Amino acid sequence: MTIHQRSISPPIDPVKLDRLAELAIKVGLRLQAGQDLLVTAPTAALPLVRLVADHAYRAGAGLVIPMLSDEAITLSRYRFAPDASFDRAAGWLYEGMAKAFGANTARLAIVGEDPMLLSEQDPARVSRASKANSIAYKPALEKIVGFDVNWNILAYPSAAWAKLVFAEDAEDVAIGKLAAAIFAASRVDNDDPVAAWTAHNAELRARTAWLNGQRFAGLHYLGPGTDLTIGLADGHEWQGGESTAKNGVTCNANIPTEEVFTTPHAHRVEGRVVSSKPLSYQGSLIEDIAVEFKDGRIVAAKASRGEEVLNKVLDTDGGARRLGEVALVPHSSPISHSGLLFFNTLFDENAASHIALGQCYSKCFLQGDRLTPEQIAQQGGNTSLIHIDWMIGSAHTDVDGIRSDGSRVAVFRQGEWA
Predict the structure, then answer these.
(1) Residue 279: strand pairing partners
(2) Is 9 among the domain residues?
(3) By CB count within 10 A, which of 6, 198, 225, 273 is most buried?
(4) Roughly how many angstroms between the first and final C-alpha of the chain, as a whole number?
């Protein structure tokens, strides 16, 4: 047992956690010899950060730079900071991150924060702080959404998060259950996770190849409370699983992932849609979202819970009421089968087909690495400070692909690939 393994909470299998760290480096990032790595994580995830550093340096990393956030310090701001603090963010820090990404530094984000950390705080302050942070983060975010470098997101089972998912269990039991769920979804609960991901990537690649061959002009969703037509951006390209960044490195940006996704046309969305699962956002749970689109823009929005938060999100900027992503996920995905609400988009978005408000991904265009922001906008790509996924698919959802001549092809029936 290593020093790092001795610091791991007993309910968490140290062997599988080490496999997750190795997977992040070998599959999630495909970290290159000599490449620097920037890691962001909550302090609770420090055991995983340390294992990641081990595997990164074994792979030849130049430098591993950890940046840790702390929940107690975050709450201190809401308890003691002057009101003006909530309109500020560390722009200098994000400018430095953008500079690092411009110099080919890889990016790893480890999530595991308490999803409800800010649930008791003033929603107006939470919204202001989020908007200020989004504005400041834009230089770094542009490098990520533009897929300039290899990047990856994965998760660590913190105690606060575990107790939210498994509220009826004792803390140690909850941590163990969440750890097992993360390991299963991330495919590290077997002896060769790398081989498992090779097979999974091949399956997702076959799905995207079929969709790209169809060249659909749009998708039509039909289900309980949903009758929605999403036009697809001109020159869109479906992506899923591993993909190649502009620096030439092929990586898996999300672990886990079950989706294939592309860019919708920001001005060609019509109809109504309801959420099939709650959205956990900034410490609030938004339930039963119901929106109506006209000319690509949300013109009416309701929610049975968290409606005020939803409307503040929609008012972030001009692009927040338009779509930046559409993704297909079968109802039979492993995360859906788990029956769990993770309160974390990295997992919950892989339980159901979903859409995302806000910023699009330039990589979801043919030759997207050569397109300027102006060209992406001309082809229908959306721009916004936000990118928020929420689930709309279920076992009762049908999806048709619409060709340019108006003919239709069955894509999903009853939540499964047709």
Answers:
(1) 286
(2) no
(3) 273
(4) 48
Q: Is residue 292 part of a domain?
A: yes
Q: Taking the chain (418 residues) in consecutive chunks of 10 residues, what is each chunk's mean pLDDT?
A: 58 96 98 98 97 98 98 97 97 97 98 93 91 94 92 97 96 96 95 95 97 98 97 97 94 96 98 95 90 98 94 94 98 92 92 96 89 95 94 97 97 97
**How many CB atoms are located within 10 Å of the residue 95 CB?**
15
Angle between helices 123-145 and 307-314 (to 10 degrees): 50
Distance (Å, rounded) from C-alpha 73 to C-alpha 136?
Answer: 20
Give 137-159 pLDDT, tens digit per residue. Answer: 999 999 998 899 999 999 999 99
For 57-86, what is each residue's pLDDT tens digit? 999 999 999 999 999 999 999 999 999 999
Residues 277 and 345 in one domain: yes
Domain range for 332: 216-237+258-417
Tell me which amino acid residue 16 is.
Answer: K
- The reply to whether 229 and 147 lie within a common domain is no
Q: Are residues 178 and 226 in the same domain?
A: no
Interatomic CA distance for residues 275 and 32, integer angstroms = 40
Asked if residues 204 and 241 have their Cβ atoms less than 8 Å apart, the reply is: yes
Structure tokens, 208: 């995207």
Q: Residue 275 — left, alpha, or beta (φ > 0 → left; ψ -120 to 50 → alpha)?
A: beta
8 A C-beta contact, residue 86 and residue 128? yes
* Sign of the alpha-carbon dihedral angle for 48, 51, 53, 56: negative
Answering whether pTM is above 0.70, one says: yes
Asked if residue 204 is part of any domain, the answer here is: no
**DSSP secondary structure code for residue 246 in this structure:** T
With H, G, I as helix, E, B as strand and everything else as coil, classify residue 90: coil
At residue 312, the 3 state secondary structure works out as helix
Please name the residue ranges forming H helices in 303-411: 307-314, 334-338, 345-348, 373-378
Q: Which residue has the tokens 């909850």?
A: 174
**Total number of domains in the chain:** 2
Phi, psi of 196 (to 5 degrees): -60, -40
**159 CB-contact burial (10 Å; exposed 0-12 / middle 13-18 / buried 19+):** middle
In a domain, 62, yes or no: yes
Report d(CA 257, CA 269) in Å as an integer. Answer: 25
Are residues 393 and 318 both part of a single domain?
yes
* Rg of the chain taking only CA atoms, in angstroms: 21
